[in-house]
Amino acid sequence: ESALGTPIPYWDSTIDYEMEDPVESILWTARYFGNGYGMVRTGPFANFDTPLGKLFRNIGSDGALYNKPGVNMLLSKFRLQQISEPMADMQASVEGQHNSVHIWVDGVMNNLESSPHDPVFFCHHAFVDFIWELFRKQQITRGIDPATDTFEQPANVTFQNINEVSVGLRGYYNNDGYSDKIANMVKYDPQPHCPTCAGSQDLYCDEKRVCVSRRRDPREFAGQPEEAMDMAMNNGMMNNEMMNNGK
After folding, report:
1. Which long-range contacts (CB under 8 A, 24 or more apart) does 68-76 make?
2. pLDDT of res. 151
3. pLDDT tens for residues 122-153?
4. How many whole angstroms separate alpha carbon 36 and alpha carbon 24?
5. How far apart are CA 244 and CA 18, in angstroms?
6. What contacts 117, CB < 8 A, 6 or more positions away?
7. Cis omega (within 30 of 0) for bond into 195
8. What is the pLDDT of residue 239?
């Protein structure tokens, strides 16, 4: 964002989770991400080429979106190892919650190597970064310095070391991500709250007084789940392929 001078909007998928059926979110329309089933033919990402061929999705086939109890679970912790693989409990793993959204979107997003070729990847990861920054700020209010709250990986784990050079980020080390050096580059808008829901015409307050996405117009093109399954099969992907590693 800083290098390009262009902000990346975060996708707060807790808003869609609150819907009766999240696949009906207005996000999966030409106004936002484009159709959610099969080859993406509408919206700004229509006809994108990826290493797996044309961009395709199969939303809601498996996995889960972020939800407020899950995010609150993460923010109830105060040490890095409590939310990080391989030390965190399953319900409190930021990596595990993140992975489930990849699986929920499915298609290109559910392939380890190719998932960044769906632009939804960056909106999803921007929300992961937002949660991380909330966690860091809570640490600071508790008197914990995020830059020093690191831990040694178990001997049988092959994750990157805290002091290693960041992959793909020239001039940065992994431990920069725990400090203000990175955090100060970006500012985040707060999550939408009732009654205004950030002033968006596409959000409303439901009976629980939480902001919820409006539904897609049923007349709008939604795509074809069968096409998504065919495209996955043609690429050697089993439908709803479970990701064994984090993005």
Report:
1. 68/14, 68/17, 68/18, 68/210, 70/97, 71/14, 71/97, 71/131, 74/131, 74/135, 75/131, 75/134, 75/135, 75/138
2. 76
3. 999 999 999 999 999 999 999 999 999 987 77
4. 9
5. 27
6. 48, 50, 51, 52, 55, 108
7. yes
8. 41
